[in-house]
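Friendly challenge for the regulars: who can give me the structure tokens for this chain first? No prize, just bragging rights.
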Amino acid sequence: MSDSAAAVDTAKKGDDDARVVVVSLYQKQQKIYARAVSGWFAGWRWALVWLTQLVFYGLPWLSWNHRQAVLFDLGARRFYIFELVLYPQDFIYLTGLLIVSAYSLFLFTAIAGRLWCGYACPQTVYTEIFMWVERHLEGDRNKRIKLDAGPWNAGKLARKGGKHLVWLAIGLWTGLTFVGYFTPVKTLVPSALGLGLGPWETFWVLFYGFATYGNAGWMREQVCKYMCPYARFQSVMFDKDTLVIGYDAARGEPRGTRSRKAALGVSGLGSCIDCNLCVQVCPTGIDIRNGLQYECIGCAACIDVCNGVMDKMKYPRGLIRYDTQSGTQQPLGRGGLLRRLLRPRILIYTTVLVVIVGALAASLWLRSPFKVDIVRDRGVMARLVEDGWVENVYGLQIMNATEQPQRYRIVVTGLPRITTDQKGDIDVDPAQARWVAVAVRVPPEAAAQVGAGTHAVRFTVERVPVHGGESPRTIDEKSTFMVPR
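First reply, four minutes later:
Bragging rights claimed.
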């Protein structure tokens, strides 16, 4: 290559380098200063905040049958839920509960969008609580913006520090309450105050407490927008007849500011006065006037604030409202809206949910007050004992699922003249399990009659009534009896 050609090539490379633009894939998160709002939907949201937190914080302190009403004792493998005593073998009920929760989510989402997110999700509930603390210590939106923009001084440090101390206290108490569902809370709290918690309890109190502090205090809308998978797949549950929060563009546009005394329709403007309050109250910082967005959690704060503005302007309410996409395009009226909501999809979801709930409730109502597991003795499959009798040994685990002492009787059938070495009844303490070794025998003539090999036998465990009002209950379990060659 000649010197001139090399110079031209170098110049071209220099021009290409000059046109390189560095684009950062990280965008700094703009802090959202949500304005306080009051109204009908805000009242419902706070009612659910109180309801859910009274249940969550109160249940561990409720006593039932001289113990904690709701306690998941992992060490003893006992799960107490009021009158119910569940064992790991009752895992099917947890499966049923998860199925009911999933179908309920599908049903409510198909009817009215993200109702769970807007009113009862723990992220929403604790964000509301943390924002209430923030407003009372730092002021409402404009004061918080001014405080953050101002220099650090004693006043700012006191307000910021006080806020975070309260947040941390709420988070740690939440973590302590969570662990209180697994360790009796009346012993857990004194241990925590005396710094005597065990290692796993300390870990989960701190983990759950700081997760609450971080999610509700710092991350807030980022959890809903980026971390929660529900925001991503909710659209598959929506259709044109799902109630969603929407802005009536036909009525609101063109938007523009005006005097409060200006009549509706003057100067060709719509109902929207472009006050931006619907954006300022939104916890995720979206503008609902741009249409339905996946970031919308359905909290209806924009409806409350917009209705307040419409009242001040003496305009009809409902510029932002719950409506369906079909209703927005063609007003249906209350009767038509109800008929569209009761569509086949909703009826199918409701029917399936009712059937599952009914089956789960019936199963819990009819469940046996005790359980039996049978395990053969693997060390000695079969053996000959005195007088030529054939003996098999079994281990029976009898689990008392009541909170009263119970008595049980064991009977074995299935082979001629089969008998056991159990001479009396078996007592099991309340909510306890007891292993019993049972030797089952058949005489030599019966063994010769049935022949060598394995033979089906049936263990019948009967509850013997020892308390007033109890009825006999039995459980049959199959097993095999081995006759050696």
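The two ends are 97 Å apart (CA to CA). The chain has a mean pLDDT of 86. Your move, everyone else.
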